[in-house]
Amino acid sequence: MVESKGWNWKIVKENQKEIWKNPSIESYYLINRWKSQGKEDFLDLGCGLGRHSILFGKNGFKVSCFDISKEAIDQTKKWAEKENLELDYRIGDMLNLPYQDEQFDCIYCRNVISHTDTEGMKKVIVELSRVMKSEGECYLTLGSKDTWGFKQQDFLRVDENTRVRMDEGPEYGIPHFYADYDLIQKLFKEFEIVNIYQVVDYYEEKGKTCKSYHYHVLIHKKGN
Q: What dotted CATH number matches 12-220?
């Protein structure tokens, strides 16, 4: 199993951080969905700079912020204090979450749990199930095997599903796990899979149109 690593936020310029301070589109849907279900104990797993922790905190959820990066937690805490929000903060490894069994009824992990290899992914899923309450839900994203990163020949190959990014930037040296539909079904077989959809992001880089593929997955922990 590879060592867990987080983003190197210290080398990300301030103007480049703005995109990571704006909540993702689906977070607004999840707020409404989980509120309607009476959920309130929320884990932002891999909180980054706090964009979803702050949003859910402002909407009445009891928020726990978790990240492997002290820099990320420090910035999230600073932002939350400006918003007069009282949140819980933990620094640690997602392979061994520092929470009690069945503590959360809703978990959000966007572009986070794929930062490991295949064995690590299996361990993360066990941890998600452990800390999730019965009838709880988790929304997560995974890199798709259709995306460019999985096909890069100069990225280090860890196993059949995992590559290590070797291009300069905040993700240098970080493992990336990639999946397809069948693998997602296999990995989350102990859960009810509410939905799976693949999103294609288009962006311009060095005068070229590039595409990045991610799976978005909503899982439900079945009742005892």
A: 3.40.50.150
